[in-house]
Amino acid sequence: MIRALIVDDEPPALGELRVLLNEAGDIDIVGEAGNAVEAIAAINRLQPEVVFLDIQMPRISGLEMLAMLDPAHAPRIVFLTAHDDYAVQAFEENAFDYLLKPVDPLRLGKTLQRLQRDRAPQDVGSLKSAHPLRQIPCAGQNRISLLRVEDVEYVASRASGVFVVGEDGKERFTELSLRTLEERTSMFQCHRQYLVNLDRIKELRFEEGGLGHILTLAGRSVPVSRRFLSVLKEKLGIG
Questions:
Q1: What is the mean pLDDT of residues 18-31?
Q2: 9, 143, 174, 183: most buried by Cβ count inside 10 Å?
Q3: The domain that contains 74 carries what CATH number?
Q4: What is the Cβ-side half-sphere exposure of residue 28, based on CA atoms within 13 angstroms?
Q5: Where does the record place a coiled coil (predicted)?
């Protein structure tokens, strides 16, 4: 059976799609989500083969969400919308299929047949050309905050998750992986567990053993490993 996640901010639409998929058979609905941040978390946790994704959602659209997925673990995306205006853009973003609401059972059946025939691992190479991220979705209590990339000082990956630190010094949890943020933004990997915004660097300090650390404009310290130090010096124009 095909493992599927369904994502829609409107409960009635979510329920209708659930019924259609259950009636179609050969589909295992492993999860549901009502917004993009919930969906990204569910994809990372449940690893569905396909996501039926509403395009028009508040704060982060389905199209924007697609660019936030880790290419190494990206499922096939079947977009859902009440308007056909997004069809071209959806396929430009490497959508597997595009269904209009209300979903026609016969048309859905054709999509499921294609999914069954094409269950080989997805070629993620084309996903790496997705548009750069301008904002990073961060999860908070009962809310989603969007932090502009230019306002980020650094990103840290810890055992408890990935945290984005803005110029205000607050740490915000994000469901995006460090790899996704490296590939989708201009931030530089200065350490196995850190990305830094090059425009927010105030000083680069050198330590013994070829190590170093960065002092940001807000006065925070970010480690630099030996592996990345020489490349960072080149990017900063340091001889």
A1: 93
A2: 174
A3: 3.40.50.2300
A4: 8
A5: none
pLDDT in tens, 46-75: 999 999 999 999 889 988 888 888 777 789
Model confidence band, residue 87 (pLDDT cutoffs 50, 70, 90): low
- For residue 88, the model assigns a pLDDT of 60
Residues 94 and 6 placed together within one structural domain of the fold: yes
Enter the tokens of residue 32: 């549901």
Give the C-alpha separation, 164 to 173, whole Å.
Answer: 6
Is the domain of 157 the same as that of 198?
A: yes
- Structural domains counted in the chain: 2
User: CA nearest 140: which of 166, 184, 171?
Assistant: 171
What is the domain range of residue 226? 135-236
Asked if 147 and 64 sit in the same domain, the reply is: no
The torsion angle over the Cα atoms of residues 141, 145, 85 and 24, rounded to 10 degrees, is -30
Flag the least confident range among 39-43, 123-127, 160-164, 223-227: 123-127
* Same-domain check for residues 122 and 153: no
